[in-house]
Every structure is written in C-alpha cells, then in structure tokens.
C-alpha cells in the first residue's frame, strides 16, 4: 500500500502534467503565500517564471545554408516557435568574424508556449538523458535565473534520429521574476526564490553534493558570507 505522502506527490504531478500554468496560479501561489505569510505578504513578491530563452551557437558553421536551415527546423519543431538568427555586433579578425555575421539562433518563449515547453522538459526530456542524476543548484545566477546546457537535440521526443546529421546542443535559461523588497534583494534571497519555485514545479534539482553536509539554509548562508569576507581580505592584501 502506498504511503499518504507518495499519493500526494502523484496527485501533484498529475495536476502539473494536466495544466502546469493553472496549477501554479491556483495551487502553488496560494501554498507559498499561506506557508510564508511574512516572506510573501505582497503577492508581487511571489516568484514566477517570466520567460524561457533557448540559444544555440553555431559559429562559422552558420554560414553553411544547409546547417542553418536544419537548426531552424529543429528549433521550430522543439519549441513551436520560429527562432531569431543572432548576428555579430562587431568584426573580430582573429576569429574570422565580420560585422553583422550570422552566428547562432535564439528563441524566447512566454505564456502558453513557455509552460508547454517546461512541462515537456521536466517530465519527458530529462528522463531521456543517460545516467541523469539531477541538476546542480549552483547554476543559478545573481538574479535568481537558472541556466542549463543540453549536449544534444535527440533527447526531445519530436526529433527523429534518422533526420539528424550531427548532434548539437543548446543552452536553456529560465528567467524568474519576483519584486523583492529592499530587505530581501540580496543575491542569496533571489536564488532562494528560484529554488523554492522550481521545487514546487518538480524541477529535478540535485541538493546533494556540496550542500549535503549543512543541516539548514542559515548554515549555507554563513559559509557564503565567510567566503566573501576572505575574498575581500585577499583582494585588500593584493
């Protein structure tokens, strides 16, 4: 017989699979505010996913029309949206790059397409990665956004193995938006907001490794402050 906790987890996953946007608006936001009335007294401070940016750098290979066309088709198939071709802003002779030269592709997903892609990424795509052990919590940036890299496009169910000439990866950035007050505008608070949101969305964050020896978040915060102090001390001596 399944435990009550496992049944609740299964129910949560089914709700997210059915409509992840609706579950966030009606379920997750309410739970966050109820469990943390002091932290999220203002509803605008509750973290939310603003957009997802997907990028692929092709370099000089983008000058090959067939390679560029194939990448555009893959992006359109995976995201449901046609990508924008990124171009160089200035010439760099050492890298044989001219000004306004095509170098890669980018897509920005919002709204329904963003949530559709997120559902596919969490519940289907990560499961296709060999020896997948979760994603590092150390990939958050100072703004609380999360960036991950995928080595190949074959892990997406829409891509047919026989149609792929060469495996190419891309980077995915999940941009989190939250209007934090000045008292909670530090980097550690922004990262914490992102971690809380992703945990509720069943994002496979791996909390072990570097952080498993600490029993509470306050201990991790103290370690960060100590390292910051030592870094400043070293700089002042130099």
Automatic annotation (TrEMBL):
Which family does the record claim for this protein? Belongs to the universal ribosomal protein uL5 family.
* Superkingdom: Eukaryota
| UniProt key word NAD | no
Q: Which GO terms describe its cellular component?
A: chloroplast; ribonucleoprotein complex; ribosome
- What quaternary arrangement does the UniProt entry report? Part of the 50S ribosomal subunit; contacts the 5S rRNA.
Sequence ranges assigned to domain Large ribosomal subunit protein uL5 N-terminal in this UniProt record = 42-98
A molecular function (GO) held by this record is:
rRNA binding
A Pfam entry, by short name: Ribosomal_L5
**Which segments constitute the Large ribosomal subunit protein uL5 C-terminal domain?**
103-182
**PANTHER family listed in its UniProt record:** 60S RIBOSOMAL PROTEIN L11-RELATED
Record's function text = Binds 5S rRNA, forms part of the central protuberance of the 50S subunit.
Keyword terms of this UniProt record: Chloroplast, Plastid, Ribonucleoprotein, Ribosomal protein, RNA-binding, rRNA-binding
Give the source species.
Lithodesmium undulatum (Marine centric diatom)
Q: Where in the cell is it found?
A: Plastid, Chloroplast
**Membrane in keyword set:** no
Write the protein's name. Large ribosomal subunit protein uL5c
Per the UniProt entry, what is one GO biological process?
translation
């Amino acid at each position: 017989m399944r435990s009550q906790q496992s049944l609740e987890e299964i129910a949560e996953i089914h709700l997210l699979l059915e409509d992840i946007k609706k579950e966030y608006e009606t379920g997750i936001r309410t739970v966050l505010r109820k469990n943390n009335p002091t932290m999220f007294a203002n509803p605008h401070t509750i973290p939310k996913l603003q957009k997802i940016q997907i990028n692929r750098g092709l370099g000089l290979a983008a000058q090959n029309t067939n390679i560029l066309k194939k990448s555009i088709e893959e992006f359109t198939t995976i995201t449901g949206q046609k990508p924008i071709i990124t171009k160089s802003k200035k010439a760099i002779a050492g890298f044989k790059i001219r000004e306004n030269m095509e170098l890669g592709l980018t897509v920005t997903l919002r709204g329904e397409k963003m949530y559709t892609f997120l559902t596919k990424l969490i519940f289907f795509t990560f499961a296709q990665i060999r020896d997948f052990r979760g994603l590092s919590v150390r990939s958050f940036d100072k703004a609380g956004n999360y960036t991950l890299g995928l080595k190949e496009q074959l892990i997406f169910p829409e891509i047919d193995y026989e149609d792929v000439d060469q495996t190419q990866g891309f980077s995915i950035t999940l941009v989190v938006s939250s209007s934090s007050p000045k008292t909670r505008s530090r980097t550690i608070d922004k990262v914490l907001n992102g971690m809380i949101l992703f945990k509720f969305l069943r994002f496979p964050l791996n909390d072990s490794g570097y952080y498993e020896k600490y029993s509470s978040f306050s201990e991790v915060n103290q370690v960060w402050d100590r390292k910051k102090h030592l870094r400043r001390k070293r700089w002042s001596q130099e």
